[in-house]
Design brief:
The complex is a heterotrimer of chains A (304), B (323) and C (505). With 304 residues, chain A is α+β, with helices and mostly antiparallel strands. Helices cover 32% and strands 25% of the residues of chain A. Chain B has two domains: 34 residues; 263 residues, Rossmann fold (3-Layer(aba) Sandwich). Chain B is elongated and about 100 Å long. Classes of the chains: A alpha+beta (304), B alpha/beta (323), C mainly alpha (505). Chains in contact: A-C, B-C. At the A-C interface, α1 of A face α1, α13 and α20 of C.
Chain lengths: 304, 323, 505
């Protein structure tokens, strides 16, 4: 008997035949081919749930913690009926713009509970309503910001609108400002954009103009002036464009407006242009009012 | 020992290996096209077991008096004899209400004397087999024993068919709440005639449980869910089962605490039995026994509107006799 | 190139490929990789699942057809799978080799056939008879399913944590997954592996039902090992490396031979060769299993399995199980007739919600996937578990089928509802503690939301009235994804929990 080999089998001197070598090579080639096929298969489209980078996450703009790791409190929702509980008398202004839901969340600094950020997100149903409530709530004197469709800040508070949402992100103090800004950006990023961004109409002459506002109805206290944009000027003049359903409705609205202004003693100049009611009130003289209205009518006519 | 195999041996061995490989491959192909076991079979649409009208005989009869056996015999006689409904060689399925394992005097199940008389009548008419089947709420064996319905069946020459899992299959009732529902189908598939015998009972949800609600006992599956749409379900049942004959057993009437009852105060002696081909009309008559009207039973109106029968029982040619 | 060395390369190749498949079977790595290929090419899976369901599950020309293909290869070449491909066999081979050095005599003795190696055939018969009664338990011992499960539930998470401790990143795409009861899976795996230190390939030789199946199918092999008695000097050195303990020094036990080629390599006289149609006398074609044992195993299994199930000993008999199966799963009986406990679904699950069942789903359900919503939640857009399932226990769904926008393979309508959430009003903050919360409503992913609030006026403890938003579930809309339970801030059992689908009509 031969001496047994120790750790690894020492191969006896057996000659490797051509056939063995060929078979061995073929097998190795097959393995290579198999690997190639496997890798090629990996290049194909994957299972449908992964295609097109569909991120498997549940959409919620409110993370459980803020960027700095501040824990989030419970998410509160308020509908039209419940809004008063949260924001009291301010609720009427939002209701006038068809508010659907207020989502409120709070984040607080785990090191100091006195430092916190409150987030109010109002779902206004339509982009134009969000525009309207933003303009009515903001004075225009805040620091403008390049966020959402429009945004601004005032101290540690931030305001913005995007699509049909209007939001207020309020830091408790200067210590919360940075975190409030980060939360504003995060929430804005998660909110859906509107079909088309809403901006200012280009009817109102820019000279001396301070603000543009919007009213769904009851513009300048006249019930039938609906869907109306209002411009304020630094000389106290106010100009208005209300969009009515038809020239007849516009005519009726004009008469009602003139009656109301006469009753209130408001100096006014009001005309009808198509289905639009165009007017100017409170200027220093009749000439200013007439000029303003004429300028607006001209711009409306020129618009496509 | 030879190092090479004979040609014959080689062919045999390669052939065996090839045949086995082919069998495996072929078998796999065949099996890949087969339906998996446990996949639902095709739903079955129930046929109609109704028989033609008989000249001179009414379609509905109300018999008053006692004993129960006499009521059944008299009712059949008035309708033109059992021969009108059962011909020699028929396999008759009788569906009593055996829902609970309670004694018959509690009135929650069909009176065994009525069942016995009906089974005997079918046997006399030359039925090849009389099957008595129900899918009760309580344990089936106990239900047929404690109600006396099992004994009555056997004494009269019938056979009790207790529900087994394999007896159930889906029913085809497109557009209804019961489409695809699991139903106690096997006895129905065997039967050439179907007779329902239902007691008159108060029901806490449907208000009354009579011949139409009795078909509920053919349902399997999670039928406790159907109580969410009970009226719709009962009306659907009226269209699902088109029986040869329906029997409304008013020998005992469960007037309260239905559909289970439990105390003698819940039951009154009705001494009445109605028989006919229109279950909707029979139930409308039955409502009067419970001192309510057909209009109080939502499902009767629904069944009527769908053309499964008439809830105006007085419009039918009804013969009333007393024995 | 010596053929035994080619075999070593092949073994290494398939072991690495097997591990690569497990590594790749997670989102988003999976892409188009056929990561379940080992499970699909496993003939025992093909045969047993087909017996249990009366149908060969396939996806186009692949799926379980692959296992049948491998079985045909076995018919021609014998158990090449065991010696050349099987990753669990290779691991045992490796463990034995690493074990410790031995004298040639000890190695020769270790590779002698032992009488009790017939046990695997009894195991095979028992498992196949069980499958005929829709009791599919091959997954307990099938080497591929066993290895897949052990790597997924135990080996990978442990290595993942180890790597993270060393600061080297992990195996899992995000967090290390955790699997309840993985210790038992690990113990079984390592017990079998370490047994091969004592007896080479103990599992393959004595336990493996897949090897047994292939052993039976080897009997007609046209190529096999042949010993030329004229040249042989009876030195027994061929036993030194015989993986299968198949007696190459005598009459070859064809059903045991793993075609490892070591005997050809080790034979000093070149009396052994792998030969086309060698004389029939040089091999025993049938396994060494007495007919009595085979019949006993068959008949015993045929009586035992259905009796056990009907007695409720192997599976809870209740018609409405309390556990939740992955989306696309067959109804429980059909699921158990298909699931091979390979835990490929657990491996693929991006949220770790899938867990190996302990005994809560009955003995039959051991190590099958169930959802634990406290660990994760079922992402309603994800259908990966069905995508990787080799047997169709979890059917392949597209996201549209899952959400009910496209026709579902089970013929059902609407979204796939794996369960229904319900409230434990004694634990829920707005219900029991006058505290606002509604996290559950917020995270509910259906549209419209299955969880909704109703404002209810309550009288607080101090007598003041206040309005609470209290959550409710719409059972028609709830899909049972469990994110509400997952996110519920109540510690311990959540105040909203997903149970079996509540059927409403």
């Amino acid at each position: 008997m031969r001496k047994p080999s120790s750790l690894l089998p020492r191969r006896p001197a057996r000659k490797t035949g051509t056939r063995e070598r060929t078979v061995g090579s073929v097998i190795l080639l097959l393995l290579g081919a198999g690997l190639t096929l496997f890798i090629l298969a990996g290049g194909r489209a994957g299972p449908p749930s992964l295609v097109a980078g569909e991120a498997p996450v549940v959409a919620s703009p409110y993370a459980l913690t803020s960027a700095a790791g501040w824990p989030r409190g419970a998410v509160e929702h308020y509908d039209v009926d419940g809004l008063f509980e949260k924001i009291n008398g301010k609720a009427d202004a939002y209701i006038a713009f068809d508010v659907v839901d207020l989502t409120f969340v709070g984040y607080s600094d785990p090191k100091d509970p006195e430092v916190y950020v409150d987030v109010y997100v109002y779902d206004m149903a339509e982009s134009l309503n969000a525009y309207g409530i933003y303009r009515s709530q903001r004075s225009g004197k805040e620091q403008a910001l390049e966020v959402g469709e429009e945004g601004c800040s005032s101290g540690s508070a931030f305001f913005a609108r995007k699509g049909r949402h209007y939001l207020e992100v309020v830091g408790s103090s200067a210590q919360a400002t940075a975190e409030a800004r980060a939360i504003l950006d995060a929430v804005l990023a998660a909110l859906p954009a509107g079909a088309a961004p809403v901006g200012d109409p280009d009817w109102f002459p820019a000279a001396g103009r301070t603000r543009i506002l919007y009213a769904r109805s009851n513009a300048l206290g006249v019930e039938s002036l609906t869907d109306a944009f209002l411009a304020r000027y630094d000389d106290g003049a106010r100009a208005l464009v209300a969009r009515l359903g038809s020239p007849e409705e516009a005519e009726a609205a004009r008469s009602e407006a003139l009656e109301t202004f006469e009753f209130l003693g408001t100096p006014a100049h009001v005309v009808v242009e198509g289905a639009f009611v165009v007017g100017a009130v409170d200027a220093q003289d009749e000439g200013r009012r007439t000029d303003l209205v004429a300028a607006i009518v001209k711009r409306i006519q020129e618009a496509p | 020992m030879s190092e090479s195999v004979s040609r014959r041996d080689a062919i045999k061995r390669i052939g065996a290996c090839g045949a086995a490989a082919a069998a495996l491959g072929g078998g796999a192909l065949w099996l890949s096209g087969r339906r998996p076991r446990g996949a639902a079979p095709a739903p079955w649409a129930l046929p109609s077991w109704a028989v033609a009208a008989k000249a001179g005989a009414p379609d509905q009869v109300v018999v008053r008096g006692s004993p129960a056996k006499r009521l059944v015999e008299a009712a059949l006689e008035e309708l033109g004899g059992i021969q009108r409904f059962v011909v020699p060689g028929d396999v008759v399925l009788i569906k009593p209400n055996a829902a609970f394992d309670r004694p018959a005097w509690q009135g929650s199940t069909t009176n065994p004397d009525v069942l016995r008389a009906m089974v005997a009548a079918c046997m006399d008419a030359g039925a090849a087999e009389v099957l008595v089947a129900d899918n009760p709420i309580h344990v089936p064996e106990g239900c047929f024993r404690k109600t006396g319905l099992g004994k009555a069946t056997e004494e009269a020459g019938g056979r009790v068919w207790l529900p087994r899992k394999v007896d159930f299959g889906p029913v085809a009732l497109p557009g209804t709440v019961l489409d695809g529902w699991s139903v106690f189908l096997e006895p129905l598939k065997r039967a050439t005639k179907v007779i329902g015998i239902a007691p008159v009972k108060d029901h806490n949800l449907a208000r009354a449980s009579m011949t139409l609600k009795n078909w509920y006992g053919l349902l399997g599956g999670p039928r406790n869910q159907l109580h969410q749409k009970l009226d719709e379900t009962i009306a659907t049942l009226a269209g699902m089962v088109k029986p040869t004959l329906s029997v409304l057993d008013g020998t005992r009437i469960l007037i309260s605490n239905g559909p289970t009852g439990g105390s003698p105060e819940d039951v009154i002696d009705g001494s009445v039995l109605a028989m006919g081909i229109d279950g909707v009309a029979l139930d409308a008559f039955g409502a009067t026994l419970l001192e309510i009207t057909a209009a109080d039973l939502t499902y009767l109106g629904m069944a009527d509107r769908q053309g499964f029968g008439t809830s105006d029982w007085t419009s039918l040619d009804t013969r009333e006799v007393t024995v | 190139m010596r053929i035994a060395n080619v075999r070593v390369i092949s073994q290494a190749f398939f072991l690495v490929l097997f591990i690569a498949c497990l590594y790749l079977a997670t989102a988003p790595r999976i892409a188009g990789f056929p990561t379940s290929i080992f499970l699909e090419a496993d003939p025992l899976v093909s045969v047993a699942v087909t017996i249990a369901t009366g149908h060969l599950y396939h996806v186009g020309a692949t799926g379980l057809f692959l296992g049948i293909g491998l079985l045909i290869a076995t018919l021609i070449l014998g158990r090449v799978f065991c010696g050349w491909i099987c990753p669990f066999g290779t691991l045992q081979h490796l463990v034995h080799w690493l074990g410790f050095s031995r004298s040639a005599k000890a190695r020769i003795d270790g590779n002698r056939y032992r009488k009790w190696y017939w046990i695997k055939y009894v195991i095979l018969i028992g498992l196949l008879v069980g499958a005929a009664f829709q009791i599919l338990q091959i997954g307990l011992l099938d080497p591929i399913a066993l290895a897949s499960r052990s790597f997924t539930d135990f080996v990978f998470p442990v290595i993942d944590q180890g790597l993270r401790l060393l600061g080297l990143g992990g195996i899992a795409p995000s967090q290390t997954p955790v699997f309840a009861g993985a210790w038992l899976i690990g113990i079984v795996f390592f017990t079998f592996l370490l047994m091969s230190v004592v007896i080479p390939r103990f599992f393959c030789r004595a336990v493996c039902p897949l090897g047994a199946l292939m052993g039976v199918f080897s009997r007609l092999a046209v190529w096999r090992i042949h010993r030329d008695v004229e040249t042989c000097d009876a030195c027994n050195l061929c036993l030194k490396g015989c993986e299968g303990a198949s007696d190459p020094h005598g009459t070859l036990r064809l059903s045991e031979c793993m075609v490892c080629m070591n005997c050809v390599e080790d034979c000093p006289c070149q009396a052994l060769s792998f030969k086309f149609l060698p004389p029939s006398e040089s091999a025993k074609p049938w396994p060494d299993l007495s007919g009595r044992r085979a019949v006993l195993a068959g008949v015993g299994g045929a009586i035992l399995f259905p009796s056990l199930r009907r007695a409720g000993a192997t599976v809870p008999l209740s018609g409405s199980p309390g556990w939740i199966r992955p989306p696309g799963s067959h109804p429980e009986a059909g699921f158990l007739a298909r699931c091979i406990k390979c835990d490929a679904c657990l491996n693929s699950c991006p949220t770790n919600v899938l867990q190996p069942a302990g005994l809560e789903a009955g003995f039959e359900g051991l190590w099958t996937p169930i959802l634990d919503m406290r660990v994760g939640y079922c992402d309603v857009t994800c259908t990966l578990c069905g995508h990787v399932c080799p047997t169709g226990a979890i059917e392949r769904l597209t996201p549209d089928q899952r959400s009910g926008k496209a026709e579902r393979p089970d013929g059902g309508e609407g979204p796939v509802q794996i369960g229904t959430a319900s409230y434990d009003r004694g634990r829920c903050l707005p219900w029991a503690m006058d505290t606002a919360c509604v996290v559950c409503e917020e995270v509910c992913p259906t549209s419209p939301k299955a969880i909704y609030n109703r404002k209810q006026e309550v009288v607080a403890r101090d007598g003041t009235k206040r309005v609470m938003q209290r959550p409710f579930v719409d059972p028609k809309l709830c899909v049972g994804c469990g994110i509400c339970e997952h996110e519920c801030p109540i510690r311990g059992p959540a105040a909203v929990r997903v149970g079996s689908h509540i059927g409403t009509i």
